[in-house]
Design a protein that fits this description.
This protein has about 400 residues and is an all-alpha fold. The protein is built from 18 helices and no strands. The chain is elongated. Its main location: membrane.
Length: about 400
């Protein structure tokens, strides 16, 4: 009898190392782009036509909204304010409804709830014995809660909008004050050897609000916006840095160290730099921390449940009027909520490009005005000094007094 063959033992499998286990677990939590594409390659290559059809309208509305958000806002002038308070504004706003990005972004929810109301009305008409009806008492009790929820949502969003506007105004005011101090120092020391540094410093000051604007607004082009303000080598340094506004602050700080300022004026200028840093912190906080998401989710869920049950509540009293009633209610309440969501991110709503250009034009105009006034005063001083050695009409008659004007 042949001896039985010895059982072949399977090779001992080595347990996965801790590093491999952690890597697999991290891969599940944060799948790579390649892995996600390979796992869903079949679904992405053959998308469900029903899902594509249902998502076509929301994708279209979102595309319009995102495209209009990137539009540059103008600053108001007198003619804009006159048109803004015109008695024909209501007709103008009503006729431009179809071009409003707020209204166009609400096409998916409003028409979905209107179609749902039409379906409920059709069902109740065809099957009156099984009609879906309910008492309006729950709506009477919850209507004040919905109103307060929308009011608090819009108030919180406007508070963020106002905070962003004030933070940006402080940055612009600090830039204007710092540029004024630099130009005033040049007038008191016109013959120093730091004129190139002073010119570069003014350009850095003008470039900081532009860099901050690009930092807080998505899809901004740093190179295009900073092209005329910074030389090529400085621009490359800024573009290579991870935090472009802080890099420009470093340019400003080191340029201030190269100029000959007294301690008092240097402390004032450094306080303006602290305003820049505070502005960066305020802007990044507004961008990174939204209104608590639970509040936004609660508002959205409340609105959805409200309009899903609205046709059932109104059927006994309104019959087919529930369809236009649902449309008007959804268009009104969702529009209020949409405005709150839009102004929650304040900076795309502000005319930041126009404000940066206004600062640039204001500083250039200030420099030209200083040159003009300084030349005019020197001319009058020389004429008065040439006519007689004594001062006339209050104009200085000595070189010492003329130096005070300089």
């Amino acid at each position: 009898m042949a001896a039985p063959k010895p059982a072949t033992t399977a090779p001992a499998t080595r347990p996965p190392s801790t590093h491999t286990h952690r890597h697999l677990r991290a891969s599940r939590c944060f799948p790579s782009e390649k892995g996600s594409n390979s796992s869903t390659g079949e679904s992405s290559s053959n998308p469900n036509p029903v899902v594509s059809l249902l998502s076509a309208v929301p994708d279209w509305a979102d595309a319009i909204q995102e495209r209009r958000i990137r539009d540059r806002r103008p600053l108001y002038d007198q003619s804009s304010w006159r048109e803004h308070r015109s008695s024909r504004r209501h007709l103008r706003h009503f006729l431009s409804s179809l071009s409003s990005r707020v209204i166009l972004s609400l096409v998916p929810p409003v028409f979905s709830f209107t179609a749902f109301a039409a379906a409920i009305a059709t069902f109740n008409t065809l099957l009156p014995d099984y009609a879906l009806t309910a008492s309006p008492l729950p709506y009477q009790l919850t209507a004040p809660a919905l109103a307060l929820l929308l009011v608090f949502r819009t108030e919180a969003s406007y508070a963020r909008f106002d905070e962003g506007r004030k933070a940006w105004m402080r940055v612009l005011a600090g830039a204007a004050d710092l540029a004024g101090l630099v130009m005033h120092h040049h007038r008191r020391h016109p013959h120093d050897n730091h004129e190139p540094v002073r010119r570069a410093l003014l350009n850095y000051i003008l470039a900081f609000p532009v860099a901050l604007k690009c930092h807080i607004i998505r899809d901004s082009d740093y190179k295009e916006d900073l092209q005329g303000l910074l030389p090529e080598d400085d621009l490359n340094t800024v573009l290579q840095s991870k935090h472009r506004p802080r890099c420009i602050i470093e340019f400003i700080s080191q340029s201030l160290q190269m100029l000959d300022f007294d301690d008092q004026k240097r402390n004032i200028m450094e306080s303006k730099l602290s305003c820049f840093l505070e502005g960066i912190g305020a802007c990044e906080q507004l961008i990174g921390i939204p209104i608590p998401l639970s509040y936004t989710r609660l508002t959205s869920r409340f609105l959805v449940l409200w309009h899903l049950t609205l046709p059932v509540i109104l059927w006994d009293e309104c019959k087919w009027i529930v369809v236009p009633a649902t449309f008007i209610s959804a268009a009104s309440l969702f529009c209020i909520e949409e405005v709150g969501v839009l102004i929650e991110e304040p900076f795309p709503m502000l005319a930041l490009d126009a404000l940066c250009k206004q600062l640039h034009d204001g500083i250039n105009d200030m420099m030209a005005m200083q040159d003009s006034v300084h030349s005019q005063l020197i001319t009058k001083t020389n004429k008065a000094h040439g006519a007689s050695g004594c001062p006339q009409n209050g104009w200085p008659g000595t070189k010492k007094e003329e130096a005070k004007i300089d």
